[in-house]
Design a protein that fits this description.
By secondary structure, the protein is α/β, with parallel strands linked by helices. The chain folds into two domains: 150 residues, Quinone Oxidoreductase, Chain A, domain 1; 142 residues, Medium-chain alcohol dehydrogenases, catalytic domain (Quinone Oxidoreductase, Chain A, domain 1). 31% of the residues lie in helices and 25% in strands. β9, α5 and β10 form a beta-alpha-beta unit.
Length: 325
């Protein structure tokens, strides 16, 4: 009987439960995917706590991305066959041995990826693409400051920034994380705590500042970022792992700067063509060997709480994957 991590009561990861669930029958137009790996993302943690903008009815299964093998296809479905290796995009449901989805939720697994890499690719790199291409419109030669550069979304920003021709300043909380960011293309490294990052950015840019700020941290990091930006800068609000930051409007006016919200999933739902172009570009780069998730931890499905804690406690370097088969 398939297993799944079920949220029946909102709260911390420890309130989730691993349960045996009967396989649901295939509905018209659906396919069944045997999940081999699921990616851990902050929205999973927030959703389980009731703190995310999407609030599924209880009970629900967390997990916004997974990868596996197609094992059953409804007769009306075209273009998907049993045995296909796929990435699965979800609103929730990935922490399970199997999922039922529409074909539109599937992306072919890049040929050089294993399942864990597939399950940790599109959420983080999709966010980075939407941030840097659609919203930030990063141009070659610009200076890109990436906060939280040791996390999954941060490392994806470093990789994409280099592919787009930017000079990347990576800021992170440990030398270990900075070493990985450097290996992924960062040009300059800033260790939080050693030197105020606003001073480091000014030093690196000879006082000019960053053209684009990529911020999944928020809080004081966001507020201080406004003090080291160049004229016409774009500040990309990606997340709030460090709390909600407040923007001083005088700093934005003086620099002719913009603060831009980044919601990659919602943007694709409102404009499917935009989402399709994003996935096409990312998978082509992956096939060319230019993008690959950095997975610091691979844990079995039953260790879901430990895996989620790695993100909460900022112990992951890049991504964390649950392995279910």
């Amino acid at each position: 009987m398939p297993k799944a991590v079920v949220c029946r009561e909102l709260g911390p990861p420890e309130k989730l439960r691993l349960e045996n669930l009967a396989s649901a029958p295939l509905a018209p137009g659906q396919v069944r995917v045997a999940v081999h790996a699921a990616g851990i993302n902050f929205p999973d943690i927030l959703m389980a706590a009731g703190e995310y903008q999407l609030k599924p009815e209880l009970p629900f299964i967390p997990g916004v991305e997974a990868a596996g093998e197609v094992i059953e296809v409804d007769g009306a479905v075209q273009g998907v066959t049993v045995g296909d290796r796929v990435i699965v995009k979800l609103r929730h449901g990935g922490y399970a041995d199997e999922v039922l989805v529409a074909p539109s939720q599937l992306t072919p697994l890049p040929s050089s990826f294993d399942y864990a890499e597939g399950a940790t690719f599109l959420a983080a790199h999709g966010t980075a693409y939407h941030a840097l291409v659609d919203r930030g419109q990063v141009r070659p030669g610009e200076v890109l400051l990436v906060h939280g550069a040791g996390g999954g979304v941060g490392l994806a920003g470093v990789e994409l920034g280099k592919l787009l021709g930017a000079t990347v300043i990576a800021a992170a909380s440990s030398q270990e994380k900075l070493a990985v960011a450097q290996a992924r293309g960062a040009d300059h490294l800033v260790l939080y705590g050693r030197e105020p990052f606003r001073d480091a950015v000014k030093r690196i840019t000879d006082g000019r500042g960053a053209d684009v700020v990529y911020d999944p941290v928020g809080g004081e990091v966001f507020e201080q970022s406004l003090r080291c930006i160049a004229w016409g800068a774009r500040v990309l609000v990606i997340g709030f792992t460090g709390g909600i930051g407040l923007a001083r409007s005088n700093l934005l006016l003086i620099k002719g700067a913009s603060v831009l919200g980044v919601r990659a999933g919602e943007a694709a739902r409102k404009d499917p063509a935009l989402g399709a172009a994003r996935i096409k570009a990312l998978t082509e780069w992956a096939e060319a060997g230019k993008l690959r998730p950095n997975i610091s931890h691979r844990l079995p499905l039953e260790d879901y709480a430990k895996a989620m804690r790695l993100l909460i406690e900022r112990k992951a370097v890049g991504r964390v994957a649950l392995i279910s088969r």
